[in-house]
């Protein structure tokens, strides 16, 4: 199958964007608000911030790779020291809603309020205005993307309709760079598990680690071969466990083995596509 290839910076063969979703206990609270009184369930998410996050940061630091951390505003307010630590290590901080809302269930006004609160909380926490937007696991609407754009967010990483970044036409002469994601490259669907609230609903899963790593390597091999953009999604409460964190190291080793990879944050990706768009505009004049 022919796939149009992108010319990546410095002649790199493919791009890799390492993203970390700091869901913490909000993932479980979104499933059932009663979890607020379930310390056992909340501790699943808290583990990610207490132990898992530092393991991810250590691996990225050792390899001099900058990640993009998608942060809910509530997390910025309640784990401010962690957000500052991430920023001090020069990783990107992007928006993940305010309190893990299902954006599609909210009115436009409510969505606007959520996104504004998210941006404000992140700015107050670490002094940085986020440029990227990812919606929590629930659905979003085209209005969500337009509202994100109107609030100064410059790129989205939500949709799954391509494996290359592209400008998404939002109507009314508005567009937003989309950096697509795919469930296969996300750790949480493989590993998140709880009895009550039941997740997954059918229960029968914590995935085999070797099998998941094989999936990720196969997907990267395909992206590398076709010259595409590989976006990995991680949650510290999943990948940060001592038996799983080695999966991240093994995957990064494999990427280095194939070589010629451009590791980019969301904003670096945005800047590159903005510059490319400007150059193409000049050529057509």
From TrEMBL:
Record SUPFAM superfamilies: Glycoside hydrolase/deacetylase
Pfam short name (any one): Polysacc_deac_1
InterPro entries from the UniProt entry: Glyco_hydro/deAcase_b/a-brl, NODB_dom, PgdA-like
Record-linked CDD domains: CE4_HpPgdA_like (cd10938)
One biological process term in Gene Ontology: carbohydrate metabolic process
PROSITE patterns the UniProt entry points to: NODB (PS51677)
Residues of the NodB homology domain: 39-285
Domain of life from the UniProt record: Bacteria
Molecular function GO terms recorded: hydrolase activity, acting on carbon-nitrogen (but not peptide) bonds
Protein name: Polysaccharide deacetylase
Organism this protein belongs to: Dethiosulfatibacter aminovorans DSM 17477
């Amino acid at each position: 199958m022919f796939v149009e290839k992108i010319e990546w910076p410095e002649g790199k063969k493919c791009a890799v964007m390492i993203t970390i979703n700091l869901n913490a206990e909000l993932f479980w609270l979104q499933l059932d608000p009663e979890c607020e009184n379930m310390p056992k369930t909340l501790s699943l998410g808290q583990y990610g911030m207490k132990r898992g996050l530092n393991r991810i940061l250590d691996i990225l630091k050792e390899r001099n790779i900058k990640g993009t951390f998608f942060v809910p505003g509530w997390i910025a307010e309640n784990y401010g020291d962690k957000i500052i630590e991430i920023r001090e290590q020069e990783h990107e901080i992007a928006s993940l809603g305010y309190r893990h809302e299902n954006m599609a269930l909210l009115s436009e006004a409510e969505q606007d309020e959520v996104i504004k609160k998210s941006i404000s909380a992140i700015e107050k926490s670490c002094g940085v205005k986020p440029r990227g937007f990812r919606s929590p696991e629930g659905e979003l609407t085209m209005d969500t993307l337009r509202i994100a754009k109107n609030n100064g967010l410059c790129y989205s990483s939500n949709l799954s309709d391509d494996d290359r970044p592209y400008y998404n036409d939002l109507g009314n002469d508005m567009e937003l760079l989309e950096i697509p994601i795919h469930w296969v490259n996300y750790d949480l669907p493989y590993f998140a598990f709880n009895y009550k609230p039941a997740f997954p609903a059918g229960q029968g899963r914590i995935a085999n680690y070797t099998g998941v790593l094989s999936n990720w390597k196969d997907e990267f091999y395909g992206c590398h071969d076709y010259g595409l953009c590989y976006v990995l999604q991680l949650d510290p409460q999943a990948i940060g466990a001592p038996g799983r964190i080695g999966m991240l190291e093994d995957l990064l080793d494999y990427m280095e083995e194939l070589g010629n990879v451009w590791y980019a944050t969301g904003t670096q990706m945005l800047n590159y596509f903005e510059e490319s768009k400007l150059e193409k505009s000049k050529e057509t004049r």
